[in-house]
C-alpha cells in the first residue's frame, strides 16, 4: 500500500521555490533593520537615568558626597544644562546620519549589498557597545559620547538603502504597500525591543543597555554575510514586475510554476544578457517625478517621529511622573501604534492607488491628535495608553509608507526604462532628506523644552501641517486621476 505524503511536507512543497526565497529575504531583512533600530533606542531610555531627581533615591551609607542634589547623576549630565547636552548627543548621531545617508545610497548602488550591509552592522555593534563601555570605563566627557554617537550615525546609514533595495529587488509593485507596511514594522519592533532591553539594565548598570543591543546587531552582520541574497537572478528565481500591468497574484500562491508568480505579459523588458545598466546619478534621481515632494514631506514627518523617539520617555517621566523603566515601557505603546499605522497606510494606499493622499489624510488627522494628547494624555492610565497608540499610528503611518512603498515605487519608476540601479540612490535621497528633520526635531525639542512641553507640541503640530502642504500637488494629481477615470489610480504615472 502506497503511503501518503506527510501533511507538513505537502504544505511546504505547495509553495513554489520563488515564494520561499521571497519570504526568506523578507524575514532576513526584517531582522536586520530591527537590530538597527534596537541599537538606536537605548539612549532615549538612559536619559532619565543620567540625570535624576536624587532626592527620591536612597543613598548608600558608605557614599561620601558634597552635593546632595546631583550625587546620583552621571557627569557631565549632572548640571542644569543636561537637556542641551542630550541635544548634542542626539544631533551628533542624527546630523552624521543625515549627511552620511546621501553618500550611502551612492555606495549602495555600486558595492555588493551583502558586504556593505554586513560591515555596517558590525561597525554599528562596535560603536553602540563603546557608548555603554563608557559606564564601565568611568568616562565623563561629553566629547567621547558625542564622537561615538556621530560615528554610529555614520555607519548606520548603510542599513536603510540596503534593505529597501534588497526588498525592492525581490518584490514587484502589486501589494507592495501591504507587504512593505507589514515589513516596516521592524522599525517599531526594534524600538520596542531596544526599550525593553535597556529598561532591564537602566537602573542597575546602564552600560549594558547599549552593550547587549551592540552584540545583537553585530551577530546580525555575521548572519547577513552568510545568508543574504541580493537579487532573484542570483539564485535563478523569476524577476518581479515593478510597473503597472496584470500583477495581481498573492505573495504566496499554490502553483507548480514558479514563473507564474510576480510576472505578467506587461513586464518591463529586461537588460540584455551580460549588459549591466549604469547606476543613476544623484541629479538624475532628483528628476524622477515625486522624489522632491516626498523627500521634503518626510523631512517634517520624520521630525515629529524622531522627536517622540528620543524625548517621549523623558516627557512621560516628567509629566506623568513615571519611573525611568516604567516610562520606557510606556513609550513602547507609541511604536505599537506605529506598527498598526504603517500596515493601515500600506493597505489603503494599495487599494486606492493614492500614496500621497493616504499620507495627507493621516498627517492632517495627526495634528489635532497631538494637541489633544498634550492636554489630556496624562489624565489616567487608560487615556495615556489610548492616546499613545493613536498618535503612534497617525505619526508613523505616513513615515513608514514614504520610506518603504513610495521609495520602492519611485526607485523603480517606469521613466527609468527598466533600470533597477536607482533604488538605493532614490531611497537614500528620500530618507536622507527626512533625516535632516530627524536631526532638527530632537535639537529643537532640547532647546524648546525648558520653556515648557506645550511649546514642543506646538512645534510638532506645525511640522505636521507643513508636511501636508508639501503633498498638496501630488494629492491634487491623484484626486484628478480618480475623477477622470472613475476608478483606482495606481502609481505615479501622471505625476
From TrEMBL:
One Pfam short name: MFS_1
This protein's GO CC annotations: endoplasmic reticulum membrane
Topology term for the membrane: Multi-pass membrane protein
Classification via PROSITE patterns: MFS
UniProt xrefs under SUPFAM superfamilies: MFS general substrate transporter
Gene3D superfamilies: MFS general substrate transporter like domains (1.20.1250.20)
Residue ranges of every copy of the Major facilitator superfamily (MFS) profile domain listed in the record: 28-480
Gene Ontology MF annotations: glucose 6-phosphate:phosphate antiporter activity
One GO term (biological process): phosphate ion transmembrane transport
Subcellular location: Endoplasmic reticulum membrane
InterPro entries: MFS, MFS_dom, MFS_trans_sf, SLC37A1_2, Sugar_P_transporter
Key words of the record: Antiport, Endoplasmic reticulum, Glycoprotein, Membrane, Sugar transport, Transmembrane, Transmembrane helix, Transport
Catalysis: reaction(s): D-glucose 6-phosphate(in) + phosphate(out) = D-glucose 6-phosphate(out) + phosphate(in)
Domain of life: Eukaryota
Residues annotated as transmembrane: 20-38, 91-108, 115-137, 143-171, 183-202, 208-229, 291-312, 332-349, 356-373, 385-410, 422-444, 456-476
UniProt similarity note: Belongs to the major facilitator superfamily. Organophosphate:Pi antiporter (OPA) (TC 2.A.1.4) family.
Record protein name field: Glucose-6-phosphate exchanger SLC37A2
Source taxonomy: Eukaryota, Metazoa, Chordata, Craniata, Vertebrata
Amino acid at each position: 500500500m502506497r503511503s501518503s505524503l506527510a501533511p507538513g511536507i505537502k504544505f511546504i512543497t505547495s509553495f513554489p521555490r520563488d515564494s520561499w526565497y521571497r519570504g526568506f529575504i523578507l524575514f532576513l531583512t526584517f531582522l536586520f533593520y530591527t537590530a538597527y533600530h534596537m541599537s538606536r533606542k537605548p539612549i532615549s531610555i538612559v536619559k532619565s537615568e543620567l540625570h535624576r531627581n536624587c532626592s527620591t533615591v536612597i543613598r548608600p551609607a558608605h557614599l561620601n558626597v558634597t552635593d546632595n542634589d546631583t550625587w546620583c547623576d552621571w557627569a557631565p549630565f549632572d548640571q542644569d544644562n543636561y537637556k542641551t547636552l542630550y541635544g548634542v548627543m542626539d544631533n551628533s548621531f542624527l546630523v552624521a546620519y543625515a549627511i552620511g545617508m546621501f553618500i550611502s545610497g551612492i555606495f549602495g548602488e555600486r558595492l555588493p549589498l551583502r558586504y556593505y550591509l554586513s560591515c555596517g552592522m558590525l561597525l554599528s555593534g562596535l560603536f553602540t557597545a563603546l557608548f555603554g563601555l563608557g559606564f564601565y570605563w568611568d568616562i565623563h566627557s561629553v566629547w567621547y559620547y558625542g564622537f561615538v554617537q556621530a560615528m554610529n550615525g555614520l555607519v548606520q546609514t548603510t542599513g536603510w538603502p540596503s534593505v529597501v533595495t534588497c526588498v525592492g529587488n525581490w518584490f514587484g509593485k502589486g501589494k507592495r504597500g501591504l507587504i512593505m507596511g507589514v515589513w516596516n514594522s521592524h522599525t517599531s519592533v526594534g524600538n520596542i525591543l531596544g526599550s525593553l532591553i535597556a529598561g532591564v539594565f537602566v537602573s542597575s548598570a546602564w552600560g549594558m543597555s547599549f552593550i547587549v543591543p551592540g552584540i545583537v546587531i553585530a551577530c546580525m552582520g555575521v548572519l547577513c554575510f552568510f545568508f543574504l541574497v541580493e537579487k532573484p537572478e542570483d539564485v535563478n528565481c523569476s524577476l518581479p514586475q515593478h510597473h503597472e500591468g496584470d500583477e495581481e497574484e498573492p505573495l504566496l500562491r499554490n502553483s507548480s510554476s514558479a514563473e507564474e508568480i510576480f510576472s505578467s505579459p506587461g513586464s518591463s523588458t529586461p537588460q540584455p544578457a551580460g549588459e549591466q545598466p549604469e547606476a543613476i546619478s544623484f541629479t538624475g534621481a532628483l528628476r524622477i517625478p515625486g522624489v522632491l515632494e516626498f523627500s521634503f514631506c518626510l523631512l517634517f514627518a520624520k521630525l515629529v517621529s524622531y522627536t517622540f523617539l528620543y524625548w517621549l520617555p523623558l516627557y512621560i517621566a516628567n509629566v506623568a511622573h513615571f519611573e525611568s523603566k516604567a516610562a520606557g515601557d510606556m513609550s513602547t505603546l507609541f511604536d505599537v501604534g506605529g506598527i498598526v499605522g504603517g500596515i493601515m497606510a500600506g493597505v489603503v494606499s494599495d487599494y486606492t492607488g493614492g500614496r500621497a493622499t493616504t499620507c495627507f489624510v493621516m498627517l492632517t488627522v495627526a495634528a489635532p491628535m497631538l494637541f489633544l494628547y498634550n492636554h489630556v494624555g496624562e489624565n489616567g492610565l487608560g487615556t495615556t495608553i489610548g492616546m499613545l497608540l493613536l498618535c503612534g499610528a497617525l505619526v508613523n503611518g505616513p513615515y513608514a509608507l514614504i520610506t518603504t512603498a513610495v521609495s520602492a515605487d519611485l526607485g523603480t519608476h517606469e521613466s527609468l526604462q527598466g533600470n533597477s540601479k536607482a533604488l538605493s540612490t532614490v531611497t537614500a535621497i528620500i530618507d536622507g532628506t527626512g533625516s535632516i528633520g530627524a536631526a532638527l526635531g530632537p535639537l529643537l525639542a532640547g532647546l524648546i523644552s525648558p520653556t515648557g512641553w506645550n511649546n514642543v507640541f506646538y512645534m510638532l503640530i506645525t511640522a505636521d501641517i507643513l508636511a501636508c502642504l508639501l503633498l498638496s500637488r501630488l494629492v491634487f494629481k491623484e484626486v484628478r486621476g480618480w475623477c477622470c477615470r472613475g476608478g483606482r489610480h495606481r502609481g505615479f504615472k501622471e505625476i
